[in-house]
Structure formats: C-alpha cells, structure tokens
Amino acid sequence: MNQSIENRPKAVTVIGWFCIAVGLWGMICDGWNISRWILEPATAVSSKSMAWLDALNSKLFVWVMFIDAICSLVECIAGAYLLKLRAWARITIEVVAWIDILFFVVAPMFEYIYIVCFTGVFGDRSAAAIMPVMLFAAVSCGWMGTVNGLIIYFLRSKKVRDAFASPPPVAQ
User: Fold this and answer.
1) Which of 57, 69, 75, 145 has the largest CB neighbor count within 10 A?
2) Rounded to an integer, what distance in angstroms lies between the CA atom of residue 145 and that of residue 151?
C-alpha cells in the first residue's frame, strides 16, 4: 500500500466512508420519493386560491429530489476517491456540503414558512400548534448545518490539505 494512503488523516477516512454511506442512502431515499411521486401524484389542494402554489411546490419537490439524487451519486463517488486522496474529491465533497446546506438548511426554512402561513394546517396558528414544527425545523436544520459545517471545517484543515498536497498515489 502506498505510504500516503497509509498516513492519510483520520478525518479523511471518516469523511470518505461517511460520504459513501450517506450517498448510497440518499440515492435510495430520493429514488423512493421520486417513484412515489410518479406513481401517486398529489391531488389534494389546500384551497382554490392556493392551487397554483401547490402545483409549483409539487414540481419543485421532484426537481429537488432529482438534484439531491445526483448530489448523492456524486458524493458517493467522491467519497470513494477521497479515500484514495484525490484532490478533486476533496473539492467535490466540499461543494456538495455547501449544496446540502442550501437544500437542507436554507430551503426547509422557506418550506416551514409556507406550511405555517399558507396551508391552513394550523388553523388557529397558535403557538402550541406551530412550535412543534418550528422545533423540528430548528433541530433538523441544526443537525444538517452542523454535520456539513464539520465536513467543510475538516476538509479545509491544514493536516488534510497537506495530505492532498503530496503527489497522488500510483496504482500498482
């Protein structure tokens, strides 16, 4: 085995395997969600005045799942090549982490605002009805933001950058 791979930082090993696992899981979940949407398209509309927004939300869901499935595939492949200390894989995983922050932290906030303000799910809009949704939003967004933030932090660390600065290992 090549010396540089034997001395690869633990952060690279953990992030590489984590990206492979999350990428595979993401492809499975996104494929399932897209197939469910195709087989059972949403027909319920909250109100006639909101029909256009429900239609837009439904179409956006499919595109978001499709883009996320592509990101999951890229993340899985990049995770495998991160273990081989390929510099492009480190950059790719960092880009995917930023995209994940956009999709799983920023975008859900708009979705929660939509749910609370426009769907009528919380008829009285009381604090007791809205707080569980906002608590879930805060926890899920905090979790995704923290995980992806740590990935970005460790991929930018000096030890990891130095490991990728050496010439790539030669296949034998």
Assistant:
1) 75
2) 10
Give how far Cα 15 sits from Cα of 2, 10, 38, 55, 83, Å. 20, 8, 33, 38, 9
Residue 38 to residue 78: CA distance in whole angstroms = 29
CA max distance for the chain: 67
CA–CA gap between residue 36 and residue 28 (Å, rounded): 12
Instruction: Please state, as a whole number, how many other Cβ atoms lie within 10 Å of the Cβ of residue 5.
Output: 15
- Decide which of 43 and 10 is more confident: 10
In this prediction, residue 24 carries a pLDDT of 95
Question: Which segments within 63-169 are labelled E, that is strand?
Answer: none
**Counts of helices then strands in the chain (DSSP H, E):** 7, 0
* Angle at alpha carbon of residue 16, lines to 14 and 62, rounded to 5°: 120
pTM here? 0.71
d(CA 100, CA 37): 22
Distance, in Å, from the CA atom of 10 to the CA atom of 19, rounded to the nearest integer, reads: 14
Taking the alpha carbons at both ends of the chain, their separation in whole angstroms is: 9
